[in-house]
Amino acid sequence: MHVYFAHCACTCLISIDDTSDQSKVGSKSISSSNPSTVKSGSTRSSWTVPSYKESRELPTPRTEGEILSSPNLKAFSFGDLKASSKNFRSDSLIGEGGFGYVFKGWIDEQTLTPSKPGSGMVVAIKKLKPEGFQGHKEWLTEVDYLGQLHHENLVKLIGYCSDGDNRLLVYEFMPKGSLENHLFRRGADPLSWGIRLKVAIGAAKGLSFLHDAENQVIYRDFKASNILLDSEFNAKLSDFGLAKAGPTGDRTHVSTQVMGTRGYAAPEYIATGRLSVKADVYSFGVVLLELLTGRRALDKSKPSSEQNLVEWARPYLRDKRRLYRIMDSKLGGQYPKKGAHAVAGIALQCIGINSKERPAMSEVVEKLEQLQDSKYNVAAPQVDTRRSSSSGSVPRSPMKAQPSPRRLSGSASPLPAAVGSPAAVGSPLPACRTAQVH
Ligand SMILES: Nc1ncnc2c1ncn2[C@@H]1O[C@H](COP(=O)(O)OP(=O)(O)OP(=O)(O)O)[C@@H](O)[C@H]1O
Ligand SMILES: [Mg+2]
What we know:
By secondary structure, this protein is an alpha+beta fold. The protein folds into 2 domains: 12-172, Phosphorylase Kinase, domain 1 (2-Layer Sandwich), CATH 3.30.200.20; 186-420, Transferase(Phosphotransferase), domain 1, CATH 1.10.510. Helix content is 27%, strand content 13%. The chain contains 12 helices and 14 strands. It has helices at 27-32, 64-68, 78-84, 133-146, 179-184, 193-212, 267-272, 277-293, 309-317, 320-323, 337-350, 361-370; strands at 3-5, 74-75, 93-96, 100-107, 121-128, 157-163, 166-172, 217-218, 227-229, 235-237, 244-245, 254-255, 274-275, 435-437. The longest helix has 20 residues, at 193-212. The model is unreliable at 1-53 and 381-438 (pLDDT under 50). The structure holds adenosine-5'-triphosphate (ATP) and magnesium ion. Adenosine-5'-triphosphate (ATP) binds next to strand 3, strand 4, strand 5 and helix 5.
């Protein structure tokens, strides 16, 4: 077995073995029919976006034809989407990921036909790079799940386009973009503590909804770039291309091809291919650390002992007196000490090595919501800012340099050596996506 990683913009899919993949979605249907021949909803003359009504209906395996004829989704023609995004012009571009580009477009709210830029409803159009089977499979999985799952913390899929080799997805537009951009993009306004907590709660609720659905869903790609924000910083999960049906009966996991993003993927999942909801809980813990520290899950630009966020941060999470050392300097010390310590404690549980001991997402939601109570939110600053970090811009309360946390024992590998897979040990990779093993 060998592993290779194909470069792309920001995430890494890791694959060690495909033989045991129990995928219920996509695999059967992909080979069964040509998407462009499937009945298209584009002939409908009138179509409205379904309103938010929680829906927990979930897929039993469906054929591609069944998936694409979902009554909740509009089938767009390529020409329509081209027209609604000004020919996919660069000034309509709002983002790029490993699988494609995201453009801003405008459509009529009632008919969902292209409208003049600036009028009607704004949408985000993801145009997949033409890349064959894997891209198509993920596209179809996304259509399958988001065509059926509706919740205020999941991004709304309005429709799709399957036209020749073109595969596109049309989503509600999320005006504040991704959490990743807010936390890490140079020049971005710092997020306050209150907003960070709000985002964490929204994202946790999205995961909790998936995990507690009658037919459980494992999200598998929880990370800052997949958390999108509306104008009020309500968080919604996007990118369901890697989502997987959870185990049934007494089973605790499903065996799958290992896919996900370096730095976020749970070590036991990478090592064994056994996927459970607790892998999502681990990834959630990593995002909590990103929110606390303002550091990326994996950062190759840092000294090797600091590249992997989990390894770097773990020793600081338990101790109230040491936590301030790793807090995001962009908070300017404006956070409640007690609340930060509590979030650190939750993160520590989520990134626990023993997956069974990690909390359920519903518990995480409950604990995080408690932190919005005044008890934990007594007026900031609660910290000794004299010893905090200065590595980022601190607009309102300039501070002196934070000593870099002391060198940690352990390697820079994204995974603890004891549980690391051959695919992962000793290879601190940037958070970039796509890998396969043959
Ligand atoms: N519905 C949306 N509304 C507004 N912006 C969006 C929307 N969907 C995506 N974006 C923007 O486009 C960017 C790229 O998204 P995309 O999902 O393609 O890639 P990614 O999440 O960054 O990486 P990956 O390919 O690993 O998922 C996002 O980070 C976000 O800024
Ligand atoms: Mg994404």
